[in-house]
Amino acid sequence: MTATSWDPALYLDFDDHRSRPFRDLLARVGATSPRRVVDLGCGPGHLTGVLAGRWPGAEVSALDSSPEMVVAARERGIAAELADVVDWAPAPDTDVVITNAVLQWVPSHPRLLPRWLQALPAGAWFAMQVPGNFGAPSHALVRELLAEPRWRGSVELRGELAVPEPAEYAELFAAHAADVDVWETTYLQRLTGEDPVLQWISATALRPVRDALPADDYAAFRAELAPRLRAAYPMRPDGSTWFPFRRIFAVAHKA
């Protein structure tokens, strides 16, 4: 998984918007009395507690590859473990796995999913969601700017094929689980503030750019990107900005 750094506070600037797909995903998991629930890529741990509240009798495990996120989770009282999802394997009593907005950072995840599903016990649930907006202006404009002479070669970002399409996930899960539920949702987020889309992607899509460039260069890159994002996502008369936010969901229930 990527070794670049995370800013938990910046990530949580849009906590309500970022948390909604997690709750929609969790609503499709029908487990009643799981023994162990795993938050695979727990981030700052702000949603791990939701799992504990849903299944109070379960052992809840949380892990993340970012030291910054693990520290933030532990500050919330979550016993988060520093570990890479690529190296993770389910324990024999793992009955629920939730991975929320994580696997898009793991290029090998289509190969990992069958391994994980095969290792889960009968009756287990595996639920994931990833962004499906890598072709949207919020990402395409970043790649276009990075292709210009000043920035060319400074960092390589994921392209439009960073995650499979829903049908591909459906086929993959169907080969290893009895019941499969795959869907996509585009949330039309109402953002406010100055350059809200730039602020949104600063915590996620721009993270590799921030880590690759010196501070002054990163500030200059953002300054060049800002007007392009404003043109793609214009501010409405009331000061708000509509931001389409496409997500892909998949839930598998083993027989």
From TrEMBL:
Location, primary (coarse class): cytoplasm
Subcellular location as annotated: Cytoplasm
Superkingdom assignment: Bacteria
GO function terms (MF aspect): trans-aconitate 2-methyltransferase activity
Membrane-spanning ranges: none
InterPro entries: SAM-dependent_MTases_sf, Trans-aconitate_MeTrfase, Trans_acon_MeTrfase_C
GO CC entries: cytoplasm
EC nos: 2.1.1.144
Keywords from the UniProt entry: Cytoplasm, Methyltransferase, S-adenosyl-L-methionine, Transferase
Catalytic reaction(s) noted: trans-aconitate + S-adenosyl-L-methionine = (E)-3-(methoxycarbonyl)pent-2-enedioate + S-adenosyl-L-homocysteine
Keyword 4Fe-4S: no
GO biological process: methylation
Role of this protein: Catalyzes the S-adenosylmethionine monomethyl esterification of trans-aconitate.
Family (UniProt): Belongs to the methyltransferase superfamily. Tam family.
HAMAP family for this protein: Tran_acon_Me_trans
The protein, known as: Trans-aconitate 2-methyltransferase
Originating organism: Pseudonocardia hierapolitana
